[in-house]
Design brief:
By secondary structure, this protein is of the alpha/beta class. Helix content is about 40%, strand content about 10%.
């Protein structure tokens, strides 16, 4: 979606998921009733908020700041009514790391909320038929082992010690 109107139409139509937070080029505020209906219908939202940095790169700092404030309002609304939020990327040449970093800088979510959005919520949204995102019996054993606790030290996400895909180690990474 690109606008609050698009968000409304997607929710009314019963979309499986909504990609993008409204308001990449213009200030767009989501209606509370639409957010509540998205929660009722179980429609997750993939944020892709970092896309507004394109406006900053074009030298439109004033617009960027307005869009950022609207994003904060929209994210708080969606979180507060209980909509499932997932971290994703809409950039073919980038990963969701930039999105997670941007969301953290907004100050809306704590580390626990961000990790849930990036792991459990993302895997359920992108791969709804697979058992991913948990360390529990019956789930795929695909995970990373970090050199630190990201709940306490967010930078530990960049210090991956071990990688496993479906239970098989992918190799050991050296931490310097």
């Amino acid at each position: 979606v690109n606008s609050a109107r698009d968000f409304h139409v997607a929710v009314i139509a019963g979309a499986d998921e909504i990609a993008h937070l409204p308001g990449r080029h213009t200030v767009e505020l989501i209606d509370r009733a639409d957010a509540m209906l998205a929660k009722q219908k179980g429609i997750p939202v993939i944020t892709t908020t970092v896309l507004i940095e394109r406006e900053l790169k074009k030298g439109k700092r004033g617009l960027y700041e307005e869009l950022r404030r609207a994003q904060i309002d929209n994210l708080r609304l969606l979180r507060d009514v209980g909509v499932t939020l997932a971290i994703g990327s809409d950039e073919y040449d980038d990963t969701s790391v930039s999105e997670a970093r941007y969301l953290r800088d907004l100050g809306v979510f704590d580390n626990r909320e961000l990790l849930q959005m990036w792991t459990l919520n993302c895997t359920r949204t992108v791969f709804p038929g697979r058992k991913l995102g948990r360390l529990e019996p019956g789930y795929e054993a695909s995970f990373l082992a970090l050199d630190g606790n990201p709940l306490l030290d967010w930078s530990s996400l960049g210090r991956i010690r071990y990688r496993f895909k479906e239970g098989a180690p992918l190799g050991v990474l050296r931490v310097h």
